Structures are given as structure tokens and as C-alpha cells.
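Subject: Sanity check before I submit

Could someone independently write out the C-alpha cells for this chain? I want to compare against mine line by line before I put it in a report. The sequence has 327 residues.
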Amino acid sequence: MKTDALTRKKAQLDALRPLPSALVDNLDRWFKVELTFTSNALEGNTLTRRETALVVEKGLTVGGKALVEHLEATNHSAALDWVETQLSRSPATLRERDILQLHDIILRGIDTPNAGHYRSVSVRISGSTVILPNPRKVPDLMVEMVDWLRTCDSLHPVELAAEAHYRLVTIHPFTDGNGRSARLLMNMILLMSGYPPAIIRQRDRLAYISALEQAQLGGSKADYLKLIAKAVDRSLNIYLKAASGEQAEAEPNQPLLKIGQLAKQAGESNSTLRHWTQQGLLVVAEVTPSGYQLYAAEMVDRIKAIHRLKSQRLSLQEIKQHLGDPD
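---
Independent answer below. Compare away.
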């Protein structure tokens, strides 16, 4: 992982500290909504960014959305609140109970019997050939992971955070909520180290899944580490722009696409894209107040992947399984 540029940008940010309290509060609110929206969207939650903000900031419910989707939003927000209370600590002080606490908050009211408890059953990642550890090995693997956290001070903080995320999601210690727990652990380590949190964007979902799987199957971690480094770099840019008075946008150069625009870029019909969306093959990034579904530019590559798999005579359900799910 190339960390020199990240270190320089953090030094620039440190030189501007302390930031005005009003600016810090604004950034904290923005990141809380964005982290909650993106982390849950990666797992299939259909709340839009605006709806997530209403649930997290206003405590409102959104008509037509399931109770579990509201709980996923409020629980993730509560987990971030808990993370904020831990930031005076160092990553080396993290223990199993801290990871279990994060998981307990994430699944509270959703799967209460399993919240904060290691799995006792075998699990698989849908659409992946990765073999996950036997449940009997999970407690020992978690002890090893925490011991590793205690003794890896030589790693750059961003590399440490990325590796902790990778190790936790590869152990897959829980029946559900592994991805969300791993991303929260990663961001807790980043925040403890003075870095802003990493946002894994919805449009990066395929790259994120593929990079993790590549490493888990014995390949290089380079793509995965590069993806995390880019995520941290984007967050540093947001802080630096905000601190200098510029209008900071998370994704300024990649506007969302209406279905017609997506169809034109991908060489596909609107009706086919609507059908694939209904089947869960395409992910809606946002819904406008007037009801237009908007897609991330990443969906162009996803459509190409669907075409490639269809040429292998796979069914839509088989294609969906092949594209995989990170949690």
C-alpha cells in the first residue's frame, strides 16, 4: 500500500487543526449519514441517502420501507456513536469485547439472540468459492486477531485499519453483520489514528467484493489495499476542502445516471434494465423526489458482467449468485 500521499495529506489536515467546531459538527453529521447509507446499501438495504438522513437525524420512518431497514440505519448510527466514545484509546488496546460490542449494536432488535455472539454454525458467502473457517475455530482465530492488533505498531494506520477489516471479514465470526462490523472496526482504527473514516461507495461494491475474494483465495491484496487507500484519500480531500472553505463533495466527478442514460452507455434497453433492477441484479443508488431511479456509473461495468455471464447460458438467479454478496 502506498501511504506517503496519505501521510502528507493528514499532516496538512493536522496543521489546520483545531477546526472550527461548527465545521467539525457539520462534517461529523455528513459522515455519519454517508457511512450508514453506504455500509447498509452494500448489504442490500434500500433506504436512499435522503431517507437514511431522515431516519438517522430526524428519527422519522419512511413509508414502504421494512422495519429491519430502519433498524439497520439506527443501529449503525448508534454504533458510530459508540465508536466516538472510544477514540481516546489506541488500536493496540482493542479487545474481543469491543468487536462483540460493535456487533451487538449492529444486530440489536434485528437478530438479538445472535447479536454480540460468535457463530456456532458453518456459513458461506453467496456466489463465492471462499471457504470460511469452521465455527469451532472462530474463538481461537479472534484471539489471534486481537493479539496481532496488540503487536503491529509498525504498520501505517491506514494499512493497519485495512488489514484489520480484511482479517475480521475473512474469519467471518458472525452469522450476519460481518461486513458492517469489519467496516466499523476499520473506521474506528482510522479515527483513533487521526484519519477520517473510509467510505466504501455503493458504486465500488463489485470492485470491493472482487478484491476481497481475490485475497481470500490466496491472490494479491494489492487491489484491496488500493481500494481502501483511495477511500481514505477521498475522505481526506473532503476534510481539506471543507477546512479551506471550498464546497466539498464526496463524488464530484461521477454524476448518477438516469435509466435512459445508463441504457445508452451500456447498449441495453430501458425495459431490460428495469427488469434486472427488479431482480436485484442492478442497484439503485438514489431515487429523486419525483421518483426517478438513479444509478452509479459502476452499473455500466455490472451490465457488461451480466452480458458476459448470460453468454455462458447462466440464468438470472445464477448470475445474481455469481456476482456475490460481501456480508
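---
OP: Matches mine. For the report I'm noting this point. The longest helix spans residues 21-42.
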